[in-house]
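Narrative summary of target 7.
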Amino acid sequence: MDAFRLVVVVIGLANVGLLAYLVLKVRDLEQRFCEKVLRSLQTVEKRPAVSAWNPSLSHQHRGGGSARGEFFVCWQWLDENWKCQRDLLPRGAEVGLPPTYPGSYRGQIVKTWVGAKA
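Modeled conformation, tokenized:
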């Protein structure tokens, strides 16, 4: 019976040792993961804040000379008319015609494509 108790104690100690080893490994993994997340967040914080859709950024194609000066014009539906958001346009831009359809709600913003700058 003493041999059986000795085996049970040895197995119990082995289980405690294994559990301690696993806890240390999980803690190390968590620490490395948190460091990576923190570095990623710091990188994101250093970038300039730009919203997912920023109408002030005009659409520019890369490539041939025929693509130069192309941009979007942002129109906002206010007081039953489309109003151009001129502060978002490149300098000297001709806005063209507003959308031909009425807005769905007050404050709605749509973009129209203009193929050339004045």
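The chain has one helix and three strands.
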